[in-house]
Amino acid sequence: MDSYKAVYQGGEGEIVEKKSRFIATVHPIESEEEALEFIAGLKKKYWNATHNCWAFVAGERQELQRCSDDGEPQGTAGRPMLEVLLGEGIHNAAVVVTRYFGGTLLGTGGLVRAYSKAVQAGLKASVIIEKQQGFLLKLETDYNGIGKIQYILGQRGIVITDSEYTEKVKVETLVPQELLDGIREEITEGTNGKAVFLACSPVCFALVDGAPVIFA
Questions:
Q1: What is the reported pTM?
Q2: What does CATH list as the number for 132-215?
Q3: Average pLDDT of span 170-184
Q4: What is the pLDDT of residue 211?
Q5: Domain 3-125 adopts which CATH fold?
Q6: Which residues contact 28 (CB under 8 A, 6 or more apart)?
Q7: What is the DSSP secondary structure assignment for residue 88, as one 8-state letter?
Q8: Residue 4's beta-bridge partner residues?
Q9: CB contact at 8 A, 173 and 137
């Protein structure tokens, strides 16, 4: 998979339905163990809640999926929560929706809607990024070629992460996997072959508030 959506920073969202409070807490995870540890922590934090329902999805292809209704009628909480994560294309994330009962029954349809809306509120309060498979490309050119390189990268929305100006100009940039061959050809042609490619290392990266972040 070339790219996928993930939670960079978790958040908390809350809705109220007929005096019942639904608090959704979203958290990034990398494994089932991390998810269960997060869920246990939320259950401890909200020990006096009526329910702490949860769902999580992990893996680049969302292959690990689990959810729990935690005492709510079967299929009214955990599964709808999981469906929101899947529907939004989110990978490697867990969510716990804590309910404090307000005295009025919501019915099965009302519960499904409430838990779904709560997860949506939690995601809205989180920082969602798109992780991409790509390459950390390092190259060197003369001063006549740097302007052309900046133009080529800018046209593709590719950010220069580092540059060094000495006798030559060294540039470091993150290139999405599917753009690599085209970018190299354009730079070679645009600089009349004067650009030298020093290194090309595979990485996973994302833009966070416009700034590139590399993940291990």
A1: 0.85
A2: 3.30.70.240
A3: 94
A4: 86
A5: Ribosomal Protein S5; domain 2 (3.30.230)
A6: 6, 7, 8, 9, 10, 92, 93
A7: T
A8: 131
A9: yes
